[in-house]
Amino acid sequence: MDAEAIVIGSGFGGSVAALRLGQAGIKTMVLERGRWWTIDDPTTNSTFATFRDIDQRAEWLNDTGLSQTPAYEGTPIDKYVGVLEVVEHGEYKFLVGSGVGGGSHAYGGILIQPPQELWGKVFPDQVSYREMDAVYFPRVHQEIGSSLIPDDILESQYYLGLKVLVEQAAKAGFPMVKSTSNQMKDGMTKFMMGIDWDIVREEIAGKKVPSTIAAEFWFGQNSGAKQTLDQNYLKRAQETGSVEIKTLHWVQRVAALPEGGYQVFVNVIDEQGAVVEQKVLTCRSLFMAAGTLGTTGLLLKAKVKGDLPHIHEGIGQELGNDGDTFVIRSNLDETTNSHLGGPGAIVIMNYENPIYPCVMMRAPLPRFETDYPRWNAMGTFIFSMTPHRGSLTYNADTDRIDLNYDIDTQAKAAAQQLVERMTDASGGDSSPVSSTITGHQLGGAAMGQVCDTCGRVKGYSNLYVVDGALIPGSSTCVNPALTIAAVAERCLDRIIPEDLKSVASG
Ligand SMILES: Cc1cc2nc3c(=O)[nH]c(=O)nc-3n(C[C@H](O)[C@H](O)[C@H](O)COP(=O)(O)OP(=O)(O)OC[C@H]3O[C@@H](n4cnc5c(N)ncnc54)[C@H](O)[C@@H]3O)c2cc1C
User: Fold this and answer.
1) What is the pTM of this model?
2) Whose CA is nearest to atom 17 of ligand 1?
3) Is the predicted pLDDT of residue 94 greater than 90, yes or no?
C-alpha cells in the first residue's frame, strides 16, 4: 500500500480528516488537485489575484481565454490552477474552491452555527444538535481561531455598510439577540468569523495590504487575515509527521481492490493543467473530500464503470444549496461604502418569514466604487430553509458530471419577502432576486441512503465521505463551512476508534 489512508481533497472536510488521522499516527496521503498558496509578502498583492486586477491566479483551469467569474465575465484570463472553479450548468454557476485549503481561500470567513430548531429537519437524530453544540462546533472554532467582529472594526468606515444594514434591520423590527438559535423568532446577532481581526487592524493602519477591508475574498486574501485551512488544520496535520500533502494531484478515478483497500488513479498536472505523470496509488482506507461536485462525481463514475458497483442507487441525489439568493438594494438614504469591508459578521434572521425561515447577510460589491459610485448600494445574500433539491448524474459520453438543478422559485419568493420588509422600513430600490450563482452546493453522497451518519459509504469497508457531499442538501439556512467541518470532526471521532483501531497509534 502507498499509504494507510488517502484523503482526496483538502477543504473543510479533508483538512479535518488529515489532522485527526495524523494525530492518530495513521500514515496518510492527502491528494489535492490545486497548489499551495503561501503568502510571502502580506504588504503587497503578490500572492492572490484581486477583484480590482483579476488574472490567471483567480480561476481554476479556465481554457476559454475569458473569465467566467460572475461580474467579471469576458475579462481576458490565462489557463492556470487558480483559486476559484466556475462550473456552468444551464443558467447556474456553481463556484468551487481549489488549492491546499480548498474552499477556505475563496470563502468569506463566515463560520455561522445553524439554529437548533432547524437542525433536526435536515440531520438524522443520531447527529444530535446537543453534541454538535457542545463538542464539534466549538472544536472547529478553536482549531481555526475564529472570533466575533470587534467593535472598533465594526465602527470603522470599512464596515459602514454593515452598520447601515443593522440599523435598517432594527427599523424593520429585528432585535439584537444572543445567538442564531432564537426559538424561531426574528432577530439579528453577531457570529464567529474565520478572520484574524488583528491583521485587519494592520490593514487599516497601512501595515498590511488592504484585503478584508477592500472586500477581497473570492480569489484569496493577500494580507493573510483570512484564517485559511492551510494555516491551521493542515499545518498541524503535517506537524504530526504522519501526513503528506501532494499538490497538483488530480484524482480521475477510484476503485475497490478485490483483496480489500482502494486504488486511486491520479493525473499529476503542471500549473497550466498539462498532465506530466499518471500514478495509481493504493490505500487501506479512502476518505472522499473533493467537495460536493468532486466527491459525488468520482463516486458516480465508479458506480457506473463498475469500480464501486455496490454504491447505493441514491448516489447523486439530494443536491441542494441552502436556497442561496442574492439581491442588491440601491438608492438608499445612507452612505454604504458598498465596495469596502468583508461579508457577514452579523446576520439578520427572518425565521418568521411566511414562506421559509431565512437569513440575510451583507455582501460587499467591489466593483461599485467605479461602476456605480452614487448608488448607495447594499449587496445581500439571503439563504433559506428550502426543501428544493436537484441531482448529479455521470455522463459516460463526455466523462463528465451533469447537473440537474431547477430554479428554486420558493426560495426566491422567501428572499423577496425579506427584502420588501427592509425596503418598507428604509426605502430604496431592489434588484430582482437572483438565484443562479452559488458556492453552497451540498449533498450527492448524503448521510441516509448512500452513507451512514459517520460518513461510511454503505456496501464498502473503509470508504468514507467527509465533506459537503455528506450533508443532506442543506445546512439549514446558513452558510455550510462550519457544519461541514464539524460533521467531519464527528465522523473522525467515531471512525478512528471504531474502524481503524488496529492501525491507529495515537
Ligand atoms: C466564493 C465562495 C465563498 C464562500 N463563502 C463561504 C463562507 O463565507 N462561509 C461558508 O460557510 N461557506 C462559504 N462558501 C462555501 C464553502 O466554501 C464550501 O461549502 C466548503 O468549502 C465546502 O467544503 P468541502 O470540504 O466540501 O469542499 P472544498 O472546500 O471545496 O474542498 C474540496 C477540495 O478538493 C479538491 N478537489 C476537487 N476535486 C479533486 C480531485 N478530483 N482530485 C484532487 N483534489 C480534488 C479541490 O481543489 C478542493 O481543494 C463559499 C464558497 C465560495 C465558492
Assistant:
1) 0.98
2) 103
3) yes
